[in-house]
Recover the amino acids of this structure.
């Protein structure tokens, strides 16, 4: 538009030829730019809902395109929408099966969380209590996380059989890691001044823990819970892939559909599992926002 | 006679009020070997308001932390009644998850006051610092000055006999700061606590205090003590009084020596 400073040539001309003459000034008049009008509530909701749907629609287009490139005898690998509907979702017995199996899976996932959340919280508190305990435990927690879970499932099977317990343990092992890590970080990030404030009143350690550290760390704990919750459904399904005896959840349905060559049902199971996982994540996010909206930056309403 | 230090003592009348806080040859060395406080002896009498100014990093805040019991001293003794201690930090240190009312109730809660009494006293203090109508606001919705008022209300709830201030208004703008200075003075006159105030601002120190102490560079020792000749109550016009300006100038020179001097 205009130049306010000396030309590039003038700057690069070197120290020897620097002159004291004032650079020419070319002023420009800038017009006011109004802000765009604030959006109505309906339009705000649309701004949240529509963009992900557009991306999802693009994904469906990609799916259809890839499918059309498949040889006809391999198209069963990617069922079309109508096949999916007629051979799976439209059938009442399949819908019923999806529902009951989803309940089984969510049962395993939630029981696993009910094991891992208290243990994770306890581990974080123990590590927070003393540096030496943190040094002792932390590397072992990392090491445990590094054990490939899939590789020890056969061992768990041999040891614990095919009931509910081994699956719950697998979920617990999958979801444990995120909880002590995020909670410990939160506990350690408490404002020093707040601790001093409590100490000045002679507060005991457990008072400081419950009245200062836990509330302050709650948002980071919730971040950990969100990760754990979405992993819980995934790991429940993974655990079921290895336990085909008895009446299992969605994971078992997925494997059985493959064996029976019912790929539409397999897709139905996959879609249901995904929806389950996403809803658990959304519920935890929503809960977190509800708890912390008043005071924490992360809970501030999005604009 | 109230403050003994290496520096020449200003002529003052014998003060017979009982001591509220006595430092006897107090020094402080951190575990890493840093000598934070050289050797400090000082007596603050009941009802006095004493400010400490000094170069940054000279150990002013450390001195306050020793006085309050947050840090232990390495040598020497501290004599003080900590059962009714008021203490404000450099920032308001409100619990962000509690509303103003809950924050003001916190110390009484830790002390085991009954619930109704807590509520009653908290509302009184909130009103006293001019936060009526903000009891149910979260700290994040308050301005910096209002947060500091809430912090003051929280300390006042315990009806402190000794009130320590660790640069409480340093982060506030000039106008808010001067207003809070006046409000602090009226609280001081109303409640009659003994004040120990750390600040970077010379005029704030002179305006608030009956005595101003200048500390040396680290390791901090008392370099000079200035008796402030103005009575209470004080009005904002005092800041334009020639004697006030002259005192500020004098302390400023002393502070510059403290900062640059090869102590």
């Amino acid at each position: 538009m205009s130049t306010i400073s000396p030309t590039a040539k003038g700057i690069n001309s070197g120290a020897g030829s620097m002159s004291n003459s004032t650079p020419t000034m070319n002023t420009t008049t800038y017009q006011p730019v109004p802000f765009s009008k604030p959006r109505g509530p309906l339009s705000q909701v649309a701004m949240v809902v529509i963009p992900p749907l557009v991306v999802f629609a693009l994904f469906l287009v990609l799916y259809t395109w890839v499918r059309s490139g498949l040889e006809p005898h391999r198209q069963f690998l990617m069922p079309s929408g109508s096949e999916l509907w007629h051979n799976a979702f439209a059938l009442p017995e399949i819908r019923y099966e999806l529902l009951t199996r989803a309940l089984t899976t969510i049962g395993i996932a939630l029981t696993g969380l009910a094991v891992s959340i208290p243990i994770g919280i306890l581990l974080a508190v123990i590590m927070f209590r003393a540096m030496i305990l943190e040094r002792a435990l932390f590397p072992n927690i990392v090491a445990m996380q590094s054990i490939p879970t899939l590789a020890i499932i056969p061992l768990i099977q041999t040891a614990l059989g095919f009931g509910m317990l081994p699956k719950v343990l697998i979920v617990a092992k999958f979801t444990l890691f995120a909880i002590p890590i995020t909670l410990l970080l939160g506990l350690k990030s408490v404002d020093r001044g707040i601790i001093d404030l409590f100490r000045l009143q002679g507060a005991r350690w457990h008072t400081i823990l419950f009245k200062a550290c836990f509330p302050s760390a709650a948002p980071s704990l919730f971040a950990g819970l969100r990760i754990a919750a979405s992993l819980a459904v995934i790991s429940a399904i993974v655990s079921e892939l290895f336990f085909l005896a008895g009446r299992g959840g969605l994971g078992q349905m997925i494997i059985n559909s493959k064996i029976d060559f019912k790929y539409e049902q397999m897709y139905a199971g996959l879609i249901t599992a995904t929806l389950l996982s996403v809803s658990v994540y959304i519920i935890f996010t929503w809960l977190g926002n509800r708890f912390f909206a008043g005071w924490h930056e992360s809970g501030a309403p999005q604009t | 006679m109230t403050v003994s230090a290496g520096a020449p003592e200003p002529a003052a009348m014998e003060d017979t009020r009982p001591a509220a806080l006595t430092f006897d040859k107090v020094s402080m060395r951190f575990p890493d070997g840093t000598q934070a406080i050289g050797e400090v002896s000082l007596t603050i009498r009941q009802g006095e308001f004493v400010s400490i100014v000094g170069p940054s990093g000279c150990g002013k805040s450390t001195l306050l932390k020793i006085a309050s019991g947050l840090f232990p001293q390495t040598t020497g003794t501290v004599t003080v009644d900590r059962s009714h201690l008021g203490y404000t930090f450099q920032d308001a240190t409100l619990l962000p998850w509690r509303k103003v009312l809950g924050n003001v109730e916190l110390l009484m809660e830790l002390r085991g006051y009954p619930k109704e009494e807590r509520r009653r006293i908290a509302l009184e203090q909130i009103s006293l610092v001019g936060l009526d109508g903000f009891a149910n606001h979260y700290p994040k919705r308050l301005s910096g000055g209002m947060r500091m008022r809430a912090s003051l209300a929280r300390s006042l709830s315990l009806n402190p006999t000794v009130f320590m201030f660790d640069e409480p208004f340093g982060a506030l703008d000039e106008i808010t700061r001067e207003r809070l200075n006046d409000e602090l003075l009226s609280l001081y006159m109303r409640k009659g606590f003994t004040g120990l105030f750390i600040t970077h601002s010379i005029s704030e120190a002179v305006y608030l205090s009956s005595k101003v102490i200048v500390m040396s560079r680290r390791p901090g020792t008392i370099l000079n003590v200035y008796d402030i000749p103005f009575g209470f109550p004080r009005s904002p016009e005092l800041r334009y009084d020639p004697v006030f300006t002259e005192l500020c100038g004098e302390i400023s020179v002393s502070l510059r020596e403290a900062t640059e001097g090869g102590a």
Chain A has twelve helices and no strands. Residues 6-15 of chain A have pLDDT under 50 and may be disordered.
